[in-house]
Amino acid sequence: xxxxxxxxxxxFAVTADGNIAFASDNFVPFGSARDRERMMELRATADAIxxxxxxxxxxxxxxxxxxxxxxxxxxxxxxxxxxxxxxxSGSGSIDADAPIFKKHFSPVIVLTTERISxxxxxxxxxxxxxxxxxxxxxxxxxxxxxxxxxxxxVRRLLCEGGxxxxxxxxxxxxxxxxxxxxxxxxxGGRDAPTIADGKGILNLSDAAQFKLKSMKRxxxxxxxxxxxxxxxx
Length: 233
Description:
Blueprint: E1 7-15, H1 33-43, E2 48-52, H2 53-59, H3 68-76, E3 84-88, E4 108-112, H4 118-127, E5 130-133, H5 141-152, E6 156-159, H6 163-171, E7 177-183, E8 209-218, E9 221-229
Parallel strand pairs: 1-6, 1-7, 2-3, 2-6, 3-4, 4-5
Antiparallel strand pairs: 7-9, 8-9
């Protein structure tokens, strides 16, 4: 019997020139209030939310459910009151004092690799609900996601960044749906992060292919949804 994967969908606010943040580590939300509300609406449909360690550190997010209204939406969707929270750190570099570890409304899982030192592993096991080693040098996301489905009953997994993590998921062919908010702003800069950073794909034939599913305009922003298609990764 073939192991089941969760349905993986991602959500990003994107500038007109394709960036998701400044080239520096200075994080400033640039989407509208409607974009932030949409983020919470999407969280209310997810069993779990996954983020990279850098995103968690820079934004100081705790990956919460967003207040009583969205908690009710989760319950109406037959989900737990709060989402499971997953942090990805191949070297275990996430700060154990990060705000996400201080809020105990739902379990926090850290996905890492054998590159993590014994001292960091010990520290993270003290603050996280579980630390899962999912590969030698790089995280095997397919194996990790099968484990999340089987161990934690994660059926819908929302990725909120950053570009390195999402790029790895794109290359692994694991992203089923993209939710993008296109914002009328330009950051510029060759080092500004995008929704798919990291190694990248080198051939057009291997490019990840998506089909536009829907698009709505709200004032000066466009909210687009794309579904995966084709045989490319």
